[in-house]
Amino acid sequence: MITNTSESLRHSEVIKSGLLIAQGLKEKSQNYKKLLTEVLKWTGGQPLLTQKLCQLIVEAEDSPPVGEEAEWFDRLVRQQLIEKWETLPELDHLRTIRDRLLRRNQRSVRLLQLYQRILRQEVVVANDTPEQNELRLLGLVVKQQGKLKPHNRVYEAIFSEAWIEHALKSQKSEIEPTDTEFLRTLAELERKLLVSQVEILSQADNEAEDEGSAQALYQVLREVTAKVGSLLGADRATIYLLNDDKTELWSLVAENEEGEFLDIQVRVGEGIAGQVAQTRKVIHIANNVYEDPRAILVKEYDKKYHYTTQNILALPILDEHKEVVAVIQLLNKLQPEKSEDGSEPPIKPQGFTKLDLERLAKCVVPIRRILESCQSCYRVTKKLRATAALIEATRSLDQINLDTKAILQRVMNTAKKLLNADRSTLWLIDHDRGDLWTELPGKGEVRCPIGVGFAGQVAEAREAMIIPFDLYNHPSAENAKKIDEQTRYRTCSLLCMPVLSPDGELLGVTQLVNKRKPGDFGEYNKEEWPTVPDFFKTSFDKNDQQSMQVFNERVGVVLQFVRTHETLKQLAQVEPQKAIYNALAVLSNSVLDQSDEALYNALYYLLSFISLTINKLLESEHTTIFMLDAEETGFWSLVFEEEATNASEIRISANLGIANKIVDSKAVQASSKPSKLNDVLIHRGITSKTISSLHNLLLFPVLDHRGKVIAIVRSFNKFLSLDPSIPLAERIDTRGFTKADAEKLQQCTASMLPILQAFQSFHREIRVIQEQRQAIDPLYQAISFVSQSSGNPEDLIQKVMQAAKKLTNADRSSLWLLDHQTNELWTTIRQSDGSWLETRVPMGEGFVGKVAQTGQAVNISFDLYQHPDSYMARQTDEKTHYRTCSLLCMPVVGSDGELLGVTQLINKRKAGDFPEYDSSDWPNVPDYFKVSFEEKDQKDMEIFNNQVGVILPGITNRSRNAQK
């Protein structure tokens, strides 16, 4: 195989992981060197395969008998890899090789025939023909002493002579497709894509990406690209789709030198494809491509990927509004016939023909339809990936030590990973000094005045700032240029956003610098400054901003917890009598107007602070505090379980087992064999993995001033040293916890007791809040009711109508949805026979249309007939014999700010058990209609509509796709 940078990096990674591999092999067999030799015999040193085979050995259920390592390993490879390679996710590069061998008719036949000769040990002199180069770049063959040989046994076993024979028969049976056959193929691909799209969308409710469905999407894109290339006889074909911001083209099917499919971006205006997207005109270079000034990047990429472009055709795919949807780029027109000796590439020097364009024109509409669906589907997969990354990132934030500097470092790292940024900084507000500060590795504390620089401007305006590539063109870039000159770092793009507390207070600013293109690129090289590396030539987009908005909201909650944590440390110094009241005040302020999850998280972090303090005091590994509940029948505590995003409550009975014994005796309990004690107090909140690592135990009852147990402190593993670099077995104090440890805790009880009592009180408050919400909070009930919609618009409309009526005590309610195609609002009303009647209102017409047009709520008090715009309502009332007296009409907006619909409430009713409106009394006004919607109704509906805006896009998207 040709040596290249990517391959060298992979070899380097294998070398770095050599110690880990050797350790695993040593544990598997004393003759591990023999196993490693067998691995290399099979892989020929190919990094990915070498790692995979080593992994197979380590994970094998049995071990090789001494002296039979080779035979055992051969069976293992054939059973676990050769027979299963098409189903193993990590072996995608093998499926890429398969696709490359089978992707074209004539070219594929020549490629297969050449590889067949090499497998049969025929002498094939290396003369760098395109077919030879392609086989070498795929990794199937290597050049040895001027001849081509099979690269390794894995490839020989998978792409064997039998496989080649079957592939050749299949390829030779195919002929160049006719236009009719091609259109039929596109129709099948479109059907396949729609199935894949429905599968992906169905995963959105779980906030997790189905890799199989996403892979199906990529496969459709590959097949469409291959079919277009085959139709026009191109050696290579790439389809680029335009992003939402219309600033970049992206492709999932462009190939690198190893035949892998890449997710790459090209800026509009750059390269051949970028110029076509910008001008919306075809570019055809029939020959002498490298001499054309438009093809500078083509020459650079060909040199990088060892390819020769002789002619090129790139054309835009436009929608019905003449806007660019995608760009198709074709390289090197092939002759349909084979060359006589097969040694020269069959490329037409005159390039693509008018007939080629005519054939493609016939297929533009179905191709465009497929690509538009791919674009929509790809947006969903990107959002799902972002959601998964957010879950992981915010979960890690929840579990870090509540230390400001630790949070700075973790936020910087998780944000970089989340958005593929090169650098990330979290600036915190210093209210005392009136500036921003952060901690940078190697530089210590750095400060930034409010209003100065991009971070300072965002802090001052409290609005996000997104600057695309190239930032140097921005009018405020002078400060960045000066800093870059000092640091020898090139700033190219930026995303800067405020971090607010749940109460809206500014806590800091996140600053992401230099969006990186996808791929395995190295660090920025200061020696090349001010040159811009290619992987920096991209920008943060709206999706990045939305992801960071969610991320920053989570950071804001964590930072507020930090402030609470630091305040609590100060509370430990005040008199015990005041501590309980102050602690409650801090807790209440920190979680004001938040969800149950936030309430529990606040309590968890503060409870964890006490637990960590006890760990240090006793030199123990792990401490849990179990608090007695208000009924004095059970103990509770809070934990973060694996992969959870919020703290959860765990409980044990106070009337059973060791807990009951402690409550009765009020005596300290200790054990040197806790793992053998079968009691819920020992095992609750401990994973099965850690049970076996428990060496000793201390159970300490915390008593109040009346001598009653209010909590039990459970500590595991008494240490000789807290130094984490020392192995666990050497740190354990085999003597276990002593009487002196209990005395230390007893001395702390006086200062600890008020705070624990505060926790008890706050926990009782949480339970009361939950009970009140379930029993009396109409808003909570309304949101819960709507969240249970079955998944179709009609059901959602009905549930919103019912919930909103009950929430505000309105007489009638309706949800109008926006139809973007017709610029109308529509809703459905169930008829007496069970059928649905659809009603539509043009944008701007009536109260509903005006709210949709302006985005502003309308609240008209009794009597609506006195309103200057009530003419249409009067006309409708005259037809229906219903009297409209008051109205509350409000927009429903999605998370991205886009209008989704309008809720309309009619006739606020007085409290009481009044009958339904009787149309025979029209136009008289019943007394229970002589009332207006209040400010609270409007605030409740604003929160309610926000929740509808979260639920609505998923349901309407699924409905549209089901209709397709």
From TrEMBL:
Residues 216-381, 403-569, 594-766, 792-962 form the GAF domain. This is GAF domain-containing protein. Coiled coil: none annotated. InterPro entries: GAF (IPR003018), GAF-like_dom_sf (IPR029016).
